[in-house]
Predict the structure.
Amino acid sequence: MSPQADEQGPRVVIAQTDIVFACRPGQPILDAAHEQGVALPYACRRGICGLCAADLVAGEVMPVDAGPMTNAQCRAGQVLLCRCAPASGTITLRPASWERRDPPRRLPPL
Ligand code: FES
């Protein structure tokens, strides 16, 4: 299965792959990825562990709430995918790892 982006709403591209998925406005990128069959690393989903850090290759992101989009585990140019949503039409990310998952799995509520 190749996750495809909806024609509407922001799109997220995983760099150097054919993976593209849609993100609802304000939806954390991590949640959107898992909903559409792209498993990305995570643990806390609260901006603490740093496992979801990814390089922001192109585009802009915005915070999903008042919390920060980075933490001490982030290198320069990285953002936490549990803490940000796309702010531009298409963004390109390079996560630490990714895996296609079929069927997709929605992350449990926090
Ligand atoms: S999942 Fe822990 S910081 Fe994002």
Summary: Strands lie at 11-14, 20-22, 38-39, 53-58, 61-63, 78-80, 84-86, 90-95, 99-100. Residues 42-45, 47-52, 80, 82 surround FE2/S2 (inorganic) cluster (CB under 6 Å).
